[in-house]
Design goal:
Number of helices: 2
Distance between the termini: 17 Å
Radius of gyration: 13 Å
Strand content: 35-45%
Order of helices and strands: EEEEEEEHEHE
Helix content: under 10%
Largest sheet: 5 strands, mixed
Length: about 120
């Protein structure tokens, strides 16, 4: 499974997720979980200051903690600058990431779930 982090300057960082991961999110970055997981569970905790994503990857459980993203998700309005987005899609091809994620496509912070 892959996590692609796209920042507001257009550069991408790709992490191959095969173990648990925890990090602080940055406003304006976009996080794309894709390729190679069968299901996931979304948990809110820490008084809505973090999101816990639990993926089933090849029969193994992988947990990803995104700290500090929930307040961004709650502030979803037209005046929000540098939005934060989380994309969860098990069928995204690497070459399609840029067309799916366009910084100008979001006017607030969102979780987009395209598992179906």
């Amino acid at each position: 499974m892959k996590l692609t982090i796209k920042n507001g300057f257009g550069s991408n960082k790709v992490i191959d997720l095969n173990k648990d991961l925890e990090f602080n999110v940055v406003k304006g970055e976009q996080y794309i979980f894709s390729s190679g997981f069968s299901n996931y569970i979304l948990n809110f905790k820490d008084n809505q200051e973090s999101i816990s994503l639990v993926f089933n990857v090849n029969g193994k459980t992988v947990t990803v903690e995104l700290n500090g993203i929930v307040p961004f998700l709650q502030a979803n309005n037209d005046s929000t600058q540098n939005p934060t987005a989380v994309i969860i899609n098990k069928s995204i091809e690497d070459k399609d990431l840029d067309t799916i994620l366009d910084n100008n496509a979001f006017n607030g912070s969102e979780i987009l779930d395209s598992l179906e």
